[in-house]
Amino acid sequence: MCGRFITTGTWAQYRRYLNILPPEVDKRNGPQPNYNVAPTSELEIITNREGERIIRPVRWGLIPHWAKDSKTRAMINARGESVAEKPFFRTAFTHGRCLIPATGYYEWHSQDKIKQPYLIHLPGDPPTFEPFAFAGIMGRNKNLDTVTFAIITLAADENVAELHNRMPVIFKGKALTAWMNTQTSNEDALDLLRENRGGNLLYHPVSADVGKVANKGADLIRPI
User: Fold this and answer.
1) Phi-psi bin for 194: left (phi > 0), alpha (psi -120 to 50), beta?
2) Would you name the residues annotated as active-site residues?
3) Taking the model in full, what pTM does it have?
4) Which end of the chain has less neighbouring CB within 10 Å, N or C?
5) From first to last of its 224 residues, what are the pLDDT tens digits of the chain?
6) Are 31 and 123 in contact (CB under 8 A)?
7) Angle at Cα 39 formed by Cα 102 and Cα 135, nearest 5°?
8) CB-hemisphere CA count at 13 Å for 155?
């Protein structure tokens, strides 16, 4: 699963690594560094509007379009194996595929009744490492006047499976463009989920301070 992550790159850096954004974003401020993005956070993600890729603020925790009130539980993750079929996710999967920029994510590994957090990231120098994007889905709920997203997960690559049996989908280069293409069918989009970079991921233990949402400092990603 993915319940916490970091966004420490600039839009210019994301454009250089992801190669899916127009050059104009280099002049855009942000995103603000966040070393502890948690559910319900509102952050800028990459979406489509009238065939063009745009950056817009969206809240983390998908609420389906059919929910009548806030009693419906928001979902921060969607399982890739069933995302196209489950009523909770399927409309967002068909019409709201998006990308969530990030530079790492946290996972907790339990051993001897102790939960040790780890930062998982692509190669590179901290605090930015190599910027990437999670596969995501988003949707608008008119009843609640809100736009929300979830991160798609699959069974963990063997490279990180010892930490957790699930991992967020981190796309390879060409898959980014196809995922954001509104003409890509659901069947082809499901195939794209397998093109992830799990085998490139590295990880190291970090302070348990990351468990507190209020903690946001850069010291959270320091190896211990």
Assistant:
1) alpha
2) 2, 107
3) 0.96
4) C
5) 899 999 999 999 999 998 889 899 999 988 889 999 999 999 999 999 887 899 999 999 999 999 998 889 999 999 999 999 999 999 999 999 999 999 999 999 988 888 999 999 999 999 999 999 999 999 999 999 999 999 999 999 999 999 999 999 999 888 999 999 999 999 999 999 999 999 999 999 999 999 999 999 999 999 99
6) no
7) 40
8) 2
